[in-house]
Each structure stands twice: as C-alpha cells, then as structure tokens.
What does this fold into?
Amino acid sequence: MNLPATVRVVEVGARDGLQNEPTPVPTEVKIRFIEMLAEAGLPVIEATSFVSPRWVPQLADAEAVIQGLSRREGVCYPVLVPNLKGLERALQAGVDAIAIFTAASETFCQRNLNRTIEQSLQEFEQVVAQAKAARLWVRGYISTAFVCPYEGRIAPEAVKPIVERLLEMGVDEISLGDTIGAAVPTQIEQLTDALEPILPKERWAYHFHNTYGTALANVLTALQRGITIFDSSAGGLGGCPFAPGASGNLATEDLLYMLHGMGIETGVSLEKVVAAAQYILGHLNRATPPSHYLQACQCGQGN
Amino acid sequence: MNLPATVRVVEVGARDGLQNEPTPVPTEVKIRFIEMLAEAGLPVIEATSFVSPRWVPQLADAEAVIQGLSRREGVCYPVLVPNLKGLERALQAGVDAIAIFTAASETFCQRNLNRTIEQSLQEFEQVVAQAKAARLWVRGYISTAFVCPYEGRIAPEAVKPIVERLLEMGVDEISLGDTIGAAVPTQIEQLTDALEPILPKERWAYHFHNTYGTALANVLTALQRGITIFDSSAGGLGGCPFAPGASGNLATEDLLYMLHGMGIETGVSLEKVVAAAQYILGHLNRATPPSHYLQACQCGQGN
It folds into this structure.
C-alpha cells in the first residue's frame, strides 16, 4: 500500500465545528479550546470567522478570540474572511493567515453566499491581493466539490477552472470540500485525476465530512494518490446539531486513529486532541459525542 | 480504481446485531425483520443462533424463528452453531446452512468460548463433518482476526493456520472478523497478502465493525484486492447498547451507500434495508440509530 510517511492535519473545530452549534460558547472557552488544540501539536488551527455576526452569531466574538489567544510558536491560525470588510476586521485584529471560500456548485453558491461563483471569485481577487500585500498566508475553500445538496454530483470539470482561478490569485493552499459528506472514493479518484496536472500536492487539501460514514475511505483514497493535507474537527463538531451523534466534519481523533494505526506521522497527540474535544463538548448541549473514537471511549474501548 | 463489479452482502443483523441487545424482541418481530431483509434482496441472512439460551437469552427462540420464517427462494439463512448439541437442534429445526466460529487470539478464544483454539477446531471438525453429511452449507467465522482486546494486534501468521484447518474441514466460506472494529486498512492489506495463496476469493468474506470509523476504508482496501463478500448489519445493530449511537457492526445501509455510489452492484434495495432497519429499531430502546445513513435521514439528508 503506497502511503505517505507524514500528513498535515488542519484543525477546523473552532470555526467550522462551532459555527452551527446553537449553544452559545463563552469567548474564554473558545480560546482555551484552541490553546489545547495547539498543545496537542496541531500545526494549523482555524480559529474563527470574520463573517457578519448576523450570519454566524456563534462567532461574533472573532476579534476577542484572536486577541485573547496565546499563540504557539510555529502554529498557523487562519480565520475565515468573506469579503474586503472581513479582511479589514481580520487585519485590525492582527491575524497572520486567512481562509476564503467559494463553491463548485452555482446553486449552492447563490443560496449560501448570495452571489454567483464568478462574483465570489472577483471579490476574492481583491481580498487575496490585499492579504498578500499584508503578507498573510491564504487558504481557499471550494465547497460542494463533489456533491451539491441541490444539484447532485458535481463534475470534476466544474471544479478545475475554480482551482485555476484561485491559484492565479496566489492562494497558498486549496481545500476541496465534501460539504454534505456524500462523496464516495471513486469521486475522490476522479477529482484527483482532473486536478493532478494543475494543483501541486503541497498546496492540496481535502475536507471531508462523515455524514454517510465514507470520510476515512475517502481519506485513504487520497492518501494513496499522494495527498497529505486533511481537514478535520476535534470531537467531530460541525454535524447536524439536531441529530444526536450525527457526523458532520470528519473527527480529528478518528482521522488520527487511522493515520497513526497505519504508521503515518502527524506530530499530533491523539490523547491531547481527545482532551480538547471533551473540554469543548462539555460546553455544548450534546448527549452523544459525534466522533467514533469518543463513543468507543464511552464503551471502555478507547486506547 | 480497480473494483469488482458486484458484491455479495451477508446480513448479520438478526443474529450478531440482536444478540447483545438488552431489550427483548418478540419472535414475530424477528421473523418480520428477517422477511423484510429478504424482500430487500439480501442473498444471505444469518437468522439466529443455536447457542445455549443461558449465554444469549435474546436468541433463545431460535427454533421458533426458523420454523416461523417464510423462506424466500434463493436466499440462504445460516444459523450460528457452537457445538454438536447446537447442530442437532439446528438440524431438527430444519436449517439449510450453519455458521461455526473460532478466534485467532488464544486469550479471546479462552475467555469467550471457554476453550483453546485447538479445542474449538476439534469440536468443529465433527460439527462440519455432520453438517456436510446433512448437505448443509457451512460458514466459518474467525473472530479477532486483526486485533484482540486482550492481546492487541494479531499477526496474519496466526490467522493463516486456522484458515487452513477450516478449509480442510470443508467449510464453504470463511469470514474474517474485526471483532472490536479496531483494524486499519494496512492490516486488511497484510492479512490479504498472507491468505491470498490459500484462500480462494469466492470463499473469502470480511466482517468489519465500525467502532473507530474505519470499516468502509477497510472495505475499500479489500475491494481493491478483489474481495467481494462483506458482512454487515441492518441499522448498524450490534454496537455497544450502552453508548447511544456507538457503532458496532458496519451498517448494511452504510455499506450499500458506498458500494452503489461507486457503481458496484449488490442486488439489494437500500430503501428496503432502511425500512427493515427502522422496523427493528422501533422495537429496541435506542435513542440514536447507530448507522450513519439513518442519522443522515434524521437530518433530512437521506437520499
């Protein structure tokens, strides 16, 4: 089995994980959560989002989170930025990395970002230019890169020109998202085939959700193709908060369990990620932890 | 991606799935559950177990289940048989297929079956000889083929001689189990390497549990190696009943979702398996369905 020796895990629990949680989380709890994730050895931790507080009230304290954080040497803390106004707030708060986001499905883009894909790319051209001028590291998300809840399967050919545009802007890393967690391994294979000629492996991340349980099979497929950057969320946060136990984001501890079990190094302590996940879950109103690993711990099987 | 065109799914929900459930299930509900699974197109449905009712009180009605069942043409209904006494009961009940079981871990075998691996093989030599004389189809389970809760990882070299012995007895199919759901894809690869010289693909099944979320990644690995028989449990039954949502057996609907999504044919209706799973879950005291697919349905994402 042809697998990479090391993988870089991008932790998205504090942003993508928390943004839909209905239970308000105090700023100091978010900060402690992020600090625990950094202590676990995670190299990239998405910290918060500078979208309008009207859209995402859970992350309205973005400035306070960034400014209250004790940053750990060598750890990158990107923040989500939706437009020039968001970038301005992020720069004032003193961030050193941002993430922008568009989608591969026109319908999803219009319904969720309230603009066309082309409009989103034009806005982000300016955002990225200014971010680069300020020497920020820039990550670009492409949502619904495999399946759209409105349009169904998305052809790799629809994703490719968006990747090209983001690369032209100078985005440092591109994360291709299975937003509703519906992709299967053959789709990972097909998108990887399509993007291989244009996207360098060191700038290529996959962002899988685990809605149908396929996330680790998708990771395995990508690993076999030489992809080494994967997004995940401590505790599996980010699922549908109304279905106890429903999986949203691939859980960081589930990802680490498989990677470490296969001898792939991440530099991350699974034990400390579990502690961080248990800490944040203690502040949310969730009966069932959404990660397999934490459920196994409840059965006395965690190891 | 080199994948087989078709897969045979062996449904174990009515036996492996129910055996640890604390809520008593009426015989007529079990029968209806099995009939719904057959209507869904499942070709092999493990129906019950002829172990002592003292060990597994949930399946004490094995005779009544077998005799009450309207068998569907072309469907195989194996029953678990622990010894000669169990075989005698099964034959009297009129079964046409049995499953026997041993383990690859000596400690697990002694603690769970109360005998050594060698003792279990000697007992089953007689069981299989008599079953073959009665023209029964015989399946052999090897538990803890990857990881033992007491001994840790099991070397493929420990599994191989047990497979050889079962083949010598004339067992028709061998199902290699990741009993605690702790295996990772590299282990599937290694065991497949070790057994490939001795075990014909048409007699080779894998039985994965999803405790750590790796089951579908393990299935994918086996598919890529040409394995085409997989065990699964409707509704994901068989998990730890004390951790709501905890995954035990790989859920049949999660397996079908991935297989069908990759264009692999099974002859099984996912929709009808979901109906069977919802039917049996309605009779169990479980707040959260243990399968990803059913949780996605709760969030309005089932398709």
The radius of gyration of chain A is 18 Å.
